[in-house]
Amino acid sequence: MPDLLVKLYDLPDGQRPARELALRGIVVRLALPYEKTQVLAWVRERFGDGWADECDVAFGNQPRSCFVAVDRGALAGFACHDSTCRNFFGPMGVAAEARGRGIGGALLLACLHAMAAAGYAYAIIGGAGNGAIYRKVAGAVEIEGSTPGIYRDRLTSTH
Q1: Could you give the CA distance from residue 80 to residue 57 in angstroms, rounded to a whole number?
Q2: Within 10 A of 87 (CB to CB), how many other CB atoms are there?
């Protein structure tokens, strides 16, 4: 899976998708410190230990770098940046039952705009799979020669 690159100085409006979701009762916002245990448990249950570990790092960053989508009090999705590596977006996940409603795109843009506000000119999306959402929402392009990128030499066993 290749890494992708996003120009943060040329992002689409990040507020519009969030406003549209808010009209349907879904709020996209920065996660709050007292939500950490709940968010990490939700991420671990749906996406595994690896993503939960990366999300944990995002809660420890100053400023925090974990965003959540909340649908009438229930967690519907999350997205992080600066957790795997500095200047990296991800991980991001949306609950299976909430997909197709624009939540992933709104979370993506919230994170990317936060990265731009922090002074980054570009964001890297590591191991992006097919990358369709990143291309469509943020104009991401493939970084040639980036496979396997930072995800090589992963632990496969604790023995």
Answers
A1: 9
A2: 15
Q: Which residue has the tokens 């493939």?
A: 142
Distances (CA, A) of 98 to 6, 24, 101, 141: 25, 12, 6, 26
Tell me which residue range forms the domain holding 65.
4-146
Q: What is the pTM (predicted TM-score) of this model? A: 0.94
Q: What CATH number is given to the structural domain containing 107?
A: 3.40.630.30
Q: Is the peptide bond before 12 cis (omega within 30 degrees of 0)?
A: no
> Mind listing the pLDDT tens digit for each residue in 111-141?
999 999 999 999 999 988 779 999 999 999 9
Residue 156 lies in a domain: no
Burial class (CB in 10 A: 0-12, 13-18, 19+), 95: middle
